[in-house]
Amino acid sequence: MSTSAIAADLPRRSAPPVFTPVPVFAWTGAYFGINAGYAYTESDTLRTVGIGALQANVVNDLRRPAVPLAQDGFSAGGQVGYNFQLTPGSGVVFGLEADAQYMDLQRSRTETIFRPAFNPNILTNTYRADLDFLGTVRGRIGYAFDRVLVYGTGGFAYGNVSQGVTFQTAAPITYAGSRSQIETGYAYGGGIEYALPTDSFLNFFRSSAVTIKGEYLRYDLGSRTLLVASTGGPGVGYNVTSRTEGAIARAGINFKFGTY
């Protein structure tokens, strides 16, 4: 009985608990995703100057010297990129991203002008502008607070810009000009991105590598002058100058290769 009592007093020997470290999220890795948002133009006034004697028509407001042609609509596209984080968890993040999107920015305006003191005919002026595609290649730099990344971005931009102007005197078109080509410039902006937890209902892939973002991006593809040349009217024609500049406010979702 004494032997049993002594054995009962001895300390129990059991395996120590296993410590499982909590994985630290890192933004390093390649990713791809989609985006959609709202786009609008800025500095969207068309300015007309008559060549030679035709400037008198501009002065007399037969051909408007300045015509606003504001454009807005939706945008949708996709992006690919790569991030590199200096330290896992919180720290500085560098990246490079390329994107391309459709832009619903086609607008037109038609004006009818009748000023018999300067011209006995009814004049019709039609203006059209369109940016139907925009792409960028940008650097990104930001700071990650674990799963939250705040960043700035900037770089190269390009897009397909179209413009058309026709001036009618009575029925016939007396002056016309159009162009459609790829223009280049720059883009810059910033945003915030959040890596979804695995158990989030928005994380369709059930992976810690799904992120959502909100972003504001400004673009400037420069200004161009279009010759609206005579098609039967007197003189050489008119020069119409426009600028392709605007902004996009959008949301996106990315899938990053690798979970951590």
Question: Between the first and last Cα atoms, what is the distance in angstroms?
Answer: 59 Å
Strand line-up in the sheet with most strands? 1-4-5-7-8-9-10-11
**Average residue-wise pLDDT:** 89
What sequence of helices (H) and strands (E) makes up the elements? HEEHEEEEEEEEE
The proportion of strand residues reads over 45%
Derived from helix and strand composition plus strand pairing, the structural class reads mainly beta
Overall tally of structural domains: 1
CATH class: Mainly Beta
Helix content: under 10%
Tally of DSSP β-strands = 11
CATH topology value:
Porin
In the CATH hierarchy, what is the architecture at level 2? Beta Barrel
- Sum up the overall morphology in one term: elongated
Biggest sheet architecture: 8 strands, antiparallel, barrel
Which residue ranges are poorly predicted, with pLDDT under 50 across at least 5 consecutive positions? none
Description:
The chain is mainly beta and 260 residues long. The chain has one domain: Porin. It contains two helices and eleven strands; from the N terminus they run αββαβββββββββ. It has helices spanning 2-9, 55-59, and strands at 29-42, 45-50, 66-68, 72-85, 91-103, 107-113, 123-145, 148-169, 173-195, 210-230, 237-256. It has an eight-stranded antiparallel barrel with strand order 1-4-5-7-8-9-10-11. The chain is elongated. The two termini are 59 Å apart.
